[in-house]
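Notes, p. 3: input format for complexes.
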Amino acid sequence: MLLSIAAGMPGITLAEEANSSSQDFGGLPPGAGQAEVYGLCSSCHSLMIVKQQRLSKEAWLDTLDWMIEEQGMPRLPPKSLDLIASYLAEHYGTGGE
Ligand code: HEC
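Output follows (97 residues plus heme C):
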């Protein structure tokens, strides 16, 4: 009896919802700065453009400056820039990865 009622329910599966609920930050590795890089950098261009770079922290800071001066990125407080550059240099740095 119970079984026949259950079998009469429409079979809806919410596969898509399960997918979109897993926030993966565009494939960025976890760490301090991940959410900032994802939110900021992906608002203008693909994160691929970021992920394919291999730069030192100084060079990342220069890149961020350039993004601010020439590309219209919001001017962030130095602490935020430092966090972002550290994150980028750690994961997308020149350290033989
Ligand atoms: C306001 C828009 C904007 C934001 C925000 C932004 N960018 Fe960019 N970025 C651009 C544009 C536009 C280009 C392409 C410039 C070109 O090729 O002429 C670019 C290009 C780049 C490049 C390629 C540089 C090269 O040598 O070709 C890198 C690396 C980069 N951005 C990193 C970042 C990072 C990291 C962030 C986040 C901290 C960021 N961008 C945020 C607009 C932005």
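Confidence is low (pLDDT under 50) at residues 12-22.
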